[in-house]
Structure formats: C-alpha cells, structure tokens
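User: I'm new to structure prediction. If I give you an amino acid sequence, what do you actually give back? Let's try with this one:
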Amino acid sequence: MPSRAKSSRASLTTRRIDPRHLRHHSRQPADRRNRTAQVSRYFQDSIDLCCIADLNGFFLTVNPQFSQRLGYNNEELTGQPYLAFIHPDDLAATQEQMSQLISGCDVTAFRNRYRDVHGVYTWFEWTARAFVKEGLVFASARDVTDRVLMEQQLKQLEQRERAILDNTSAVIYVKDCDGRYQFVNREFARLFHVSQNDVAGKTDFDLFPEGLATEFQRNDRRVIESRLPLKIEEVAPHADGLHNYLSVKFPLFDAAGETVSIAGISTDISDRVWLQRTTEELRLAQEVQRRLFPVGEFKIAGFDIHGKVLAASHLCGDYFDYLLRPNGNVVFCVADVSGHGLAPALEMVETRAMLRMLLKESLPLNETVQALNRLLHDDVPEGSFVTLLLAELNPTTREFRYVGAGHDATLIRSQGTIQRLPSTGTVLGLMRDAVFQLSPVISMEPGDLLLIATDGVHETLSPDRELFGHERLCRTILMRRHLSANLILEELFAIAHAFSRQPLPRDDMTGIIVKSLP
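Assistant: Good question. You get back a string of structure tokens that encode the predicted 3D arrangement of the chain. For your 518 residues, that looks like this:
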C-alpha cells in the first residue's frame, strides 16, 4: 500500500491532471446533499399529504399539503397522536391497519376520515410502510372525498334500482348468450320457486318444461341474432295453470359493441286479456244503454224540452225519458237506481221496459207507479230500490200533475220564485203495497221552468265536503234561464262537476228541463 500510494503521488507530479476527473471526485459530497435536498423538496412540495409517524401513533413531521388541507399549523399536528383527528367510526379500522404495519405488512388503499380545523371530515386514501427497527412509519394520502361521495351515490343508485327491480310486479331477468341466468328479480324467484342466489348458471331447461324452455331460448336467439329488442307473447306455468306474458327482450352490449347478454321484462297479461274482453263487453253494453235514452230534440209546441245524463262510470243507473200518451199528453220521467255499475244499469233497463209497457195503458199516473212498484219489488234484489218522478203534461192547457216516488222536482216561475215539488210516496221496490198520491194540477205560465233531476246534481260534494245544494242549483238556473233548455242543463252539470274538483262525477247526474215558452 505505501509503495502504491507513493507511486500515485509521483504520477501526479509527472503528468497533467484531467480537470474532469477532479470535478468527478469533488462532486460526490455535493450529490448526496442534492439528493437529500431533492427528497426534502419532494416531501415539501408533494401534492399528496405526506407524514412520518412513530410506532406509537404520533406525528413526527408532516408536509405543508397536510397542514393546508386540514387547516392546522405544523405545531398543531407535530407531536400529536393521529388518532385524535380520525372519525370515531374509523378508529378501530385504523388501529387494525397500524397493527398490520408493525407486523411488516404494507398498507395500500386504506381509507379513513380526518377532521379539519372547522370540524369537517375529509376522506383520505392511504399508502404506508413501517420501518420497525427505526421505529418509523412513512405514509402518504390523497383526498378521495369526491370519489367516496360518488361511490356512495352509485351504491345508493344500485340499491334503489335493485329495490325497483325487486318490488315490481313484472318478471325481470338477465341471461348470457348461452342461456344461463345471471340475474332474476324477486318476483321471478317467487313465481317460479327458485332462489335469487342459486339461479345463477341455470338455464330455462332447469326451470321450465322442455317445450316452454325451447320456446324461450328460440326467442332469445332471435334477439341475439338481430341485435334488436323483441316484444312477444309467451306462456309460463304458475301454480294455478298457464299464464300469458308479454315479454320485452333486448340485447346488452359490451364496450366494443358485442352482445354479451340478453335482458327480459315479462309482464303477466292474463288479467289484461280478461280485462280487454270485459271492457269490450262493457263498451257494447254502454252503447246499448245509450240507445235507450231519448235521442235528439223532443219538440212540443210552446215548450223547450231537453234531457241529459252524465254518467259516473261506464254504465249508468240513472234514467230519463219522455213519452207521448194516447191522449196526447206527454209523460216526463227521471229515475235513479240505487248503487253504481253493472247491476244498477241492468235494473235501470228493466225499470225502463216495465214503465214503457205500463204507460201504454190508460191508467192514472199514480196507479201506473203503484203497478211498477209491485213489479220491481218482486224482481229486484233485496235492498235495491229505485227513486222516480213521473210528470204528465197537457201541452194544450200547460198543466201537469206528477207522482214522486222518493224523488222531488223544482218549478222556477218566470218572476224568479222557486216552488219545491215534494215526493208523494216512498221509493220503489221496498214495500210491495205502497200507495202513491197524485199531485194537484199545476199550471205552467210562459217563462216558467220545470227541473226534474237526480240527486247526483245537488248532492255533489266539494273537496271540503261542502254540498252543492238545492239553493246553489236554483241560483245557477236563474242566472241562465234566458238560455235554451239544452244549454241550461249543459252548464248546470258542468258547474256541479267543477264544484267537486274530481276527474269524474261521484254520482250519475241526470235531469230534464221543461221550459214554457212565451
């Protein structure tokens, strides 16, 4: 070694020194200082939150980003236990991660919440490594609050979508291109007696009879091949037999546009088929009933006469009519069968047929009503009844008499006075031997107006349970008595209906106006 050193020193005196060689050797301590400075700069200027802690959980140093993000100064963080800043719900998980670090495991993608100086919690995602021999933990974190909120929102959306899928009455399912089920909703599992968890990987042949399974897969194949939605009627077995379904099947694509699965939404339309058939029958019945009401104007010299019905449902239990008797008199009739719907409508048809038959006889009006009452008593269901008012007008003398069976009428005189015409007997159909009185003769002067209406008009209720009432009914007519009988009825019914603020009347509205002309 001495001789080698001596030789080296000799060589330095005998040959020129390369400056680059000197620079290389003199630069080594400076490089170490630069690298230390660079590490320090990285720590200080990092966009991540960086910190060094001891194994006891105390911050030793933090970078400026850490302080800026939480709002504490360096002194408020350094030397403090980091658990003091963590959300109480995250303490146990954080301590568990610290235990793993001390045991030699690295921590990656661990999340917890830190409290800032304003008491607001921020989500951080951590990467950390412990150097146990040195008693140090190096960790860095990023603010992932926005990502966590987005993930929570996505989870809520998934839960909401799953709740929608599981609480719909439709059968919903997803299969892969080989026909293996990937998902079924709760209704599918309930109807076809499978578990939502265990159905994955099964095919239609595992769940349904072979013939039906073959048909299902044939329809699925059409969707896959066409890459288009398909709407088709299918049949599926239930405990009470086969049910008709309307299935909408459509392909699901991956990012490259390739079909990866097929989804289906199948709705039980067995009831709909029945309803369509019933609706058509109701439409035909409604058409038949409509033809039973008088059509067009009923013209009698010296009078303006009009009748109208506004039904509360497809079929009406009210009835109005006007008929000529052999003696030239005109009979006006308004009737109301108790209840709504098909049964009252059929009873109305029966009442009309019986009354028309009886009016062909030359019986007094009260005897006609008594005969009708006996027929209805023997024929209508127990508890059902009919209210009715018959008024017989002599057009020549402008005089009329009436019989009211649980039904009254209103006579509005030309000078504006109102005369209530009360019922003269009980309702029809309850007491077989009931007696009905014929009213005295009543004269109609020019300008007088007779209204015969069912209780569906004046008993209309507002949302606040206020009654439309007879007084409001009369006031409405008085303000419009200059109009035709047709327009008076149209506006009366429209105003009463608007008073209820309901899309449909709660009760049938029916009436006849007989207006005596000058």
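You can read the tokens as a compact description of the fold. Here is one thing that stands out. The chain has 15 helices and 20 strands.
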